[in-house]
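Checklist before submission:
- one chain only
- standard amino acids only
- sequence pasted in full

Submission:
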Amino acid sequence: MACKTYLVEDSALIRDNLVGFLEDVGEAEVVACAASENEAVAWLHSHRDDWELAIVDLFLLQGNGFGVIKACRDRAANQQVVVLTNYATVEMRERSHALGVDAFFDKSSELDLLVDWLESRRAKH
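Returned file contents:
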């Protein structure tokens, strides 16, 4: 069964490519997308039970992914949050983990690790 995934990514080109990639390779069902922090937070608050996985970029058209991650703090036990960014510095990883993300991946070099993580998640559920 496909994992209901919420994608927060500001680049339309990357977003479109990720939707196809996640649905084909990650066996995910992308239920909605957002390009800004405000849009993402509003969707998360009004759709609390409509997602199982949120994949969040850190730099957005408005605001940033940290605000989106904070909005996920009171998520259900079956919901997980992943950061997928081009800004995969040690500081960004540490800050994201301190805010409670379940995993952190570099868009440019760790998509294979994301796929492995998705497969591991699927095996557990």
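Reviewer check: The radius of gyration is 13 Å.
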